[in-house]
Give the backbone structure.
Amino acid sequence: MLHPSLSASSGVRGRGLAYGSSFSRNTDAGFLTFSTYRAPDAYKAFAAAKEAIQGYIDGTTPFDKHLLEGALSSIVVRFADSEADMATAGIQSFINQVIRGVGKEWNTILLQKVQAVTEEDLKRVLKDVVMGCFEKDRCVTICVAADGKVENIKAGFKEAGFTVEVSELEMFQDNYGLEVEGVIDTKEEDEANDDEEDETGSEEGETESEEE
């Protein structure tokens, strides 16, 4: 887990490159996500965050002891919140033992491991895991920007070696840009059937009127 202050201390927000930035993870799916928001230039914020992480890895930026203690405290709080009462504790125990296949003492074991983490462990994880959010061969990057910012952001990512594809938001309104050739859109098919039924109903109504 990364303490939220790690992104702030990197200078992304302090340098005016974004209103905020953060990391989040989905343990079950195996995803780690880095995001920025309200950034004047998304690529500059992205590059600054990568530079900051690299600084921790190569030692040019020392770890702040107080931030590390804060990160540990936040982890403990999250575990406590996940078992705040008997009901949530029971749900968490079921998830751990039945779905994830770990023992009922997993949270306790994990907390013990967290407390034993060293700075070298952090550097290893930053290099092997976290930096994957910034490497073109290990991540998928999505950016939403105003038309006037597109070319600058595109140029930045292309210079970093990314393959850039630009799409208008209209592309995602119906099928989120995920149309598969040869697959029938059931929504469109249903709408077409409804239209046919309406037309048939109208014709029948006209026929009855004529007969009367």
Observations:
- The CA atoms of residues 63 and 119 lie 8 Å apart.
